[in-house]
Structure formats: C-alpha cells, structure tokens
C-alpha cells in the first residue's frame, strides 16, 4: 500500500510511518548538501539564525543539475546521505522531521531520528530525471554561491519515496538483509 503524505511533516505523521512504507510526498521541502550543512552548523555555532526554520521540515540531499529551457529543475537524484551524518543530529534536535537521500546512516543519526520522532526517506538513486518530474517549483533561498549545493525550496507533488528508518529506529536496510539471510536457511 502506498501512503500519500503532505508537508509539514509533523510528529503525528512521522509516528504513523514504518520502515518499508512506500510514500508519495506532496508539499514543500528544502535541498541541502554537505557544503550548505556546514554553513548551517557554523551559523548555529555562532548563535545566529538559520536561513530556514527546520521545524517539521524535510531536507532533500540533492544537488540538481541546471534546468533546461521549459523545465523547473534539472535532474534531481539523491546524493549519498552519510556525508551529512555529522550535521544531521543537530538539525534533528532543532525540529527537522525528515531527510531524503540514499544509503546508510550512522548510529548517532539513528539515535537522533528516534529521539526526535523523525524519519529518513530513501529516493531512488539514478532516477533523478524521473524525480525531477515531481518537482513543480524551485527557488534558491540561501547560498546561491554554492551553485548546485545552494539551499532551494522545492514544491513537490507525489514524490515517490520509501521509509528507510522510522521513528523507532527500524531500518529497512537491516530488515531487508535479515529477511534475505533468513530466507536461505
């Protein structure tokens, strides 16, 4: 069964999601990769305000390609999430409720996901051109000098995702591996 959810991503929504759930996401999300994350954490360390309020928001780990004429955005496939692992717990503690990327997360991130009742969604790597068709608007809102890594506000409609890590720390990567290993016994 596919679940349709809308942003903002509140605790009421996240606690109803389970690792392995297929999602169609609609609403506002933000983009940021490691360079932007580093700047966000530097602002926090300096006691300054972030350019976005992360409470109940989702950050998509993506550096989209330039859009062609008539397009809202270029190819927008996920980047590897572990590059944001040193930054994610602090943002989760500020109220960030969702992250979209690909690949495994470290234990510190998983603990912060559980502590903050957040979720980690997986997007399909290599499907950036298809994912971009779900993006209905795109606006750079911070760090334009970072090019593809600038923070963007995206409006998405029915963006296909899978819950990889849920609010209880259940991890689809581990569940899948265990199911596979146990099926051969």
TrEMBL record:
Keywords: Lyase
Alphabetical list of SUPFAM superfamilies matching this protein: FumA C-terminal domain-like
Domain Fe-S hydro-lyase tartrate dehydratase beta-type catalytic: 5-174
Pfam family, one: Fumerase_C
Family to which the UniProt record says this protein belongs: Belongs to the class-I fumarase family.
Database matches in NCBIfam families: PRK06842.1, ttdB_fumA_fumB
Entries under PANTHER family matching the protein: L(+)-TARTRATE DEHYDRATASE SUBUNIT BETA (PTHR43351), L(+)-TARTRATE DEHYDRATASE SUBUNIT BETA-RELATED (PTHR43351:SF2)
Annotated protein name in UniProt: Fe-S-containing hydro-lyase
Originating organism: Clostridium saudiense
């Amino acid at each position: 069964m596919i679940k349709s959810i809308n942003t903002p991503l509140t605790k009421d929504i996240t606690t109803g999601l389970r690792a392995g759930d297929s999602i169609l996401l609609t609403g506002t999300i933000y983009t940021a990769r490691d360079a932007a994350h580093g700047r966000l954490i530097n602002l926090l360390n300096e006691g300054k305000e972030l350019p976005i309020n992360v409470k109940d928001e989702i950050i998509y780990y993506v550096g989209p390609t330039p859009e062609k004429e008539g397009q809202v955005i270029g190819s927008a496939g996920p980047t590897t999430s572990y590059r944001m692992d040193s930054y994610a717990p602090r943002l989760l503690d500020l109220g960030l409720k969702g992250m979209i990327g690909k690949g495994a997360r470290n234990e510190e991130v998983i603990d912060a996901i559980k502590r903050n009742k957040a979720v980690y969604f997986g997007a399909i790597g290599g499907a950036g051109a298809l994912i971009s068709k779900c993006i209905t608007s795109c606006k750079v809102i911070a760090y334009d000098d970072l090019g593809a890594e600038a923070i963007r506000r995206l409006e998405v409609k029915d963006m296909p995702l899978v819950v990889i890590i849920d609010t209880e720390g259940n991890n689809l990567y581990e569940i899948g591996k265990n199911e596979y290993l146990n099926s051969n016994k």
